[in-house]
Amino acid sequence: GAVVSQHPSRVICKSGTSVKIECRSLDFQATTMFWYRQFPKQSLMLMATSNEGSKATYEQGVEKDKFLINHASLTLSTLTVTSAHPEDSSFYICSARTANTEAFFGQGTRLTVV
Amino acid sequence: EDQVTQSPEALRLQEGESSSLNCSYTVSGLRGLFWYRQDPGKGPEFLFTLYSAGEEKEKERLKATLTKKESFLHITAPKPEDSATYLCAVQGGGSQGNLIFGKGTKLSVKP
After folding, report:
1. Which of A78, B10, B72, B104 has the fewest CB within 10 Å, making it most exposed?
2. Which pLDDT value is given to residue A51?
3. How many CB atoms sit inside 10 A of residue A26's CB?
């Protein structure tokens, strides 16, 4: 299947700082990328949907000024968690797809805010 | 509202003991039902897509089936390496391609 690379896999940051997570589709051009958040023993919850070159669409309850999403090219999307707080600690997962394929997922990023 | 419910929450099997995982769903205009495997600390790994009732797909020891209300993931003669959390997700007609996930079934296969 197609490969989606997410980086970093783990990050620890201090409260109040910002963290950027990258998501790259390595062998295909992703028309749409998605960002999910997963708490322990919970399902993946969609945070936002982004299409290349346009603003991301955020799900209800997700603060767009806190979770900045940039989808600058067909192979790269970034999620920046701004002014991170301990409650932002979670597992963040991106996925990417074309119009004709299923979604492929990155390896996930474990964010810990201390 | 689109919804996915998976059962059981956890399943323990002996190696070679076949079983099935259930995924019940309600969705407006099903565009696809997906099964993924997720290992601890990893992103979901794609297994199957099913599009219409009656469809079946197989891969090694796994077989996925679909009805209008639910999907089953049958595991035949499982091995310890099949231990993982299995996620079911649906894509509805009104979506941009995003998936609604169930909470998953955590499968443990003991040798």
Report:
1. B10
2. 86
3. 11
Calculate how close chain A gets to B75, using CA atoms only, in Å. 21
Place of tokens 């099964």: B35
Helix (H) or strand (E) holding B42: none
* Structure tokens, A10: 């783990």
Q: Which residues of A touch B41 (CB under 8 A)?
A: 91, 108, 110
Among left, alpha and beta (phi > 0; psi -120 to 50; other), residue B97 is left
Question: Which pair of tokens denotes residue A32?
Answer: 């749409």
Task: Name which of A102, A104, A107 to mutate to probe chain B: the one with the most chain B Cβ atoms within 10 A of its Cβ.
Answer: A102
The confidence score (pLDDT) of residue B29 equals 87
pLDDT tens sequence across B61-89: 999 999 999 999 999 999 999 999 999 99
Q: What b/e readout covers A47-60, taking b as 16+ CB neighbours within 10 angstroms?
A: bbbbbbeeebbbee
B43-54 b/e (C-beta count within 10 Å ≥ 16 → b): bbbbbbbbeeee
Q: Are A102 and A83 in contact (CB under 8 A)?
A: no
pLDDT tens sequence across A77-102: 999 999 999 999 999 999 998 877 78
Q: Is B99 an 8 Å CB contact of chain A?
A: yes
pLDDT tens, B21-41? 999 999 988 999 999 999 999
